[in-house]
From TrEMBL:
InterPro entries: DNA_Partitioning_ATPase, P-loop_NTPase, VirC1
Organism: Ochrobactrum soli
Highest taxon, organism lineage: Bacteria
Protein's recorded name: ParA family protein
SUPFAM superfamilies, per the entry: P-loop containing nucleoside triphosphate hydrolases
Regions that span the bilayer: none
Length: 237
């Protein structure tokens, strides 16, 4: 069965597109056929792809499509789902009918978060959007909250310390929100791939890259475990 993951956040710069690229690279490394769908009008994912093409770094086993309208997303999902092992969607940053459609076609919704008030607020807004659709669909769609760009400095911020209790509070109030154990540390290689160097797994395996790859592998394993735990689950049991 095709694994369908979307990356959703109303906060620009949270790491939404990077999370999609990292997930795609890890799944492709496991010989999965991956389709990326750029549904964000800012087209950051498509720009990354163009830079990869220009530098002859297009990753194997990964394809890209752009779909900015509801009917285009629905057509893509209907026509391509059987052709890929995983479909990853970079969602728009604003609430819309398109966002509802993306959530409807997701098994998991990733919401990246950095230690900042606006990003914490964006996690709550995404949780509300997911809950609204799960009520309509009567289907469990977990929100995987991923801490990104973590540093020694921002680990000491109050905003970092309240991330865990904030997500726990969402869960206790009926939202299907899970804080992933894996954190993505602030690393140059995560920025470098955005300049057209392909996926993280295509970089020269230096010590920093190997550390990053271990993080991403752990992150994707958590996503796959989350999918197994929620397979076929409905809200009303």
């Amino acid at each position: 069965m095709t694994l369908r993951i979307s990356s959703v956040s109303g906060k620009g710069g949270a790491g939404k597109t990077t999370a999609v690229i990292l997930t795609a690279g890890e799944l492709a490394l496991k010989n999965r056929r991956v389709l990326l769908i750029d549904a964000d009008p800012r087209q950051n994912l498509a720009e990354w792809w163009k830079r990869c093409e220009a530098k002859d770094n297009v990753p194997a086993s990964i394809s890209l499509a752009t779909a900015l309208r509801q009917n285009n997303i629905e057509k893509l999902m209907a026509s391509q789902e059987d052709n890929y092992d995983a479909i990853l969607i970079d969602a728009p940053g604003v609430d819309s009918v398109v966002m509802d459609t993306i959530i409807d076609h997701s098994d998991i919704v990733i919401t990246p978060i950095q230690p900042a008030q606006d990003e914490i607020k964006a996690v709550g807004e995404a949780a509300e959007a997911i809950a609204t659709r799960t009520d309509v669909l009567d289907r469990s769609i977990p929100q995987a909250v991923l801490r990104t760009r973590i540093t020694i400095v921002n680990r000491h911020l109050e905003e970092y310390r309240i991330i865990r209790p904030f997500v726990q509070n969402l869960s206790e109030h009926g939202y299907n929100s899970v804080l992933l154990d894996t954190e993505l540390i602030e690393r140059n290689c995560y920025r470098e791939i955005r300049s057209g160097l392909g996926t993280l797994q295509m970089l020269e395996p230096s010590e920093p890259v190997l550390k990053a790859r271990a993080e991403v592998n752990a992150f994707v394993e958590e996503l796959e475990q989350l999918k197994k735990e929620h397979r076929g689950e409905t809200i009303n049991g």
